[in-house]
Specification:
This protein is an alpha/beta fold. It has 14 helices and 16 strands. Strands 1, 2, 3, 4, 5, 6, 7, 8 and 9 form a nine-stranded mixed sheet that branches. Strands 14-13-10-11-12-15-16 form a seven-stranded mixed sheet, sandwiched between helices.
């Protein structure tokens, strides 16, 4: 029999003193969101933990699939509750252990007596419950260090709570507890991972994507929508803003020398992203840049790009190797989408030899011969916003 109730332990949340209630409320909301479509699921938050019940067995199975993706959870365990009497604990201990695979497994009992008036001392209880379990599960053996099954019994005044298995949670902080940012989302491997990592630290994200039709196809946009949708699994509602970027890229290709055109492209992307950011009241920009990966990701290039704004541009992948990024992309299920072979706007317009050490004053001088402002305004005006799951929005309402 599987339990219809889970005990959820908070992650770093417990460290957060005064903000604690805000975090708990946000986590409760995110778990509820993640459990959409499962009507029997109910959540009850306490100061230092949460209980989730699902009265329909298939719904509990679904909960077990979805819960490991919700940030702000340290771990969770199926729980079995009973009256705080020895008889009831004996019976419930068998249920809790019976919910696990026992064949050839090791086992240990751990007692916590929150109710100190309970008429047996801890060591005595440990021995008694252990012996009772072993009598009923002959395929188990006792092991004190790292047992396969750890039967934890918490005896409280009102009830006893038993757990036999601890599942790791996603860690991090509840998404939304650390404000909102705008993620620059290409169709590549890196930027979805960057978004995921920011979400892990409690940040809610909107995403912005630059497309250059007809050089980039509808399928390239589909790919980005699929990536944004994947990120929704981690507890956030993501909106995607798609910016038409063809005209600007064509002007750059004509007006800016090859060596500097990549830097200018990035600078314009960041300027546009920054204005959208302001409109949606987000506090920072996020990109998937990683130091030295390509010409536009040297410190010199990043300096030239950053020059267009004082808004923090967060780059959670900056010190990571590509192989480490790929590992995370696989883990969060974005990798297979990212490697679909559709061109990104930057790939198409990439000059043969972009400078790895662009000089800011040169870049600025080349840019000064063109008035980009009307093009920037037009691109922002003509953007399309998609709410995920996928519904196209004609108007731009801040409905979050
Ligand atoms: P990725 O795998 O995320 O595409 P990359 O290694 O290909 O990254 P670049 O193409 O140089 O690197 O892009 C660096 C960052 O700039 C991306 O991680 C992303 O944050 C942003 N970016 C690039 N292209 C776009 C785009 N078309 N729309 C939105 N953001 C973009
Ligand atoms: Mg890219």
């Amino acid at each position: 029999m599987i339990s219809n109730e889970l005990l959820i332990r908070y992650g770093e949340l417990s460290l957060k003193g005064r903000n604690r209630n805000v975090f708990i409320r946000q986590l409760t909301k995110n778990i509820k969101n993640a459990m959409t479509g499962l009507p029997s699921v109910k959540i009850k938050a306490e100061r230092d933990r949460m209980f989730l019940t699902a009265d329909i067995e298939t719904e509990m199975a679904e909960v077990m699939e979805r819960l490991p993706k919700v940030f702000g959870i340290h771990s969770f365990s199926p729980v079995f509750k009973c009256e705080p009497t020895l008889e009831a604990i004996y019976e419930t201990a068998l249920k809790a252990v019976g919910a696990e695979e026992t064949e050839g497994k090791s086992f240990k009992v751990e007692i916590r007596r929150t109710d100190k008036t309970f008429p047996y001392i801890t060591n005595e209880l440990q021995r008694m419950i252990g012996a009772h379990v072993l009598k009923n599960f002959e395929d188990l053996h006792v092991k004190m260090r790292q047992p396969d099954i750890l039967l934890h019994v918490n005896i409280r005044q009102d009830n006893a709570i038993l757990t036999s298995k601890v599942y790791p949670g996603a860690g991090g902080m509840p998404v939304g507890s650390a404000g909102k940012t705008l993620l620059m989302l290409s169709g590549g491997i890196d930027s979805p991972v960057a978004g995921y990592m920011m979400m892990k630290r409690g940040v809610k994200i909107d995403a912005i994507h630059f497309e250059s039709p007809p050089f980039t196809s509808e399928l390239a946009k589909e790919k980005v929508l699929d990536l944004a949708e994947k990120l929704c699994a981690f507890g956030a509602i993501v909106r995607l803003h798609v910016i038409p970027f063809t005209e600007i890229q064509q002007v750059i290709a004509k007006q800016i020398p090859d060596g500097e055109s990549m830097t200018t492209t990035r600078r314009l992307m960041v300027q546009i992203a920054d204005r959208v950011r302001e409109e949606i009241s987000a506090l920072g920009l996020v990109s998937g840049e990683s130091l030295g990966q390509v010409a536009s990701q040297t410190l010199e290039s990043l300096t030239a790009i950053n020059d267009v704004t004082s808004t923090p541009v967060l780059r959670p992948l900056i010190a990571m190797d590509k192989s480490e990024i790929i590992d995370i992309a696989k883990e969060i299920d974005t990798y297979d989408i990212s490697i679909r072979p559709y061109e990104d706007c930057c790939t198409i317009f990439t000059p043969a030899r972009p400078k790895t050490k662009p000089k800011l004053d040169r870049v600025k001088r080349f840019e000064s011969f063109t008035d980009f402002e009307p093009m920037i305004e037009k691109a922002i005006q003509e953007r399309r916003t998609y709410k995920l799951p996928r519904v196209e929005e004609d108007t731009f309402d801040d409905f979050l």
